[in-house]
Predict the 3D structure of the following.
Amino acid sequence: MADSVTPIGNRYIESNDSDIHFLRTWAVRRCQHTDWDVCERIRLVELQEARDRAAQMEKTMRWWSNCTAEWRNRWSAVRDERNRAREEAETLRYNYDLLLEEREKSIISSQESSPELELRPKLHVAVQTCENAAGNSNFLGKISEIDEQIAAETEFLKDQTFELQKAREKIDADSKIIDELREKVEKMERELQNAGKNKRASSS
């Protein structure tokens, strides 16, 4: 009886493969019965390639996740810093507006008190320009003075907090000593009372 070869479909080989173990038909490549070992090796190679691709995709996804988390943390820090800078700028602008109002009030009061300035408007404009420059420099100087004062007060508060903590620790230690002395006194009083009772009992 002649050996017959029944072609079985193989999905592991491309249509342009010229491997001698695979036969070309009118539509697809076919795997012969005698080539199962080759088909199995190809299947194992494809499985290993799929595992490698999956591992690489997992590494890529993990890398993207870490990058996203780091970016969020950095953006949160930058956003907080931006908000603090915005609040400081608003505070400085508010203080600057207050200083401008005070300067305008002082200029108006000086104009009312000295009529000589009204007779010399050009000189007044020059003086006002100088006062604006001086006001800006004074404003910056005041800001630096305020910062130095805040820093000094912060250091003073830190020192006071440290001294207060030391005082609290000393008070706690003294309280423990007082409690121990009170317990000793109470113990001695109980011993004296017991001794008196024993003495009266023995005398009777």
Observations:
- Helices lie at 36-113, 116-119, 121-203.
- The first helix runs from residue 36 to 113.
- Residues 1-13, 17-29 have pLDDT under 50 and may be disordered.
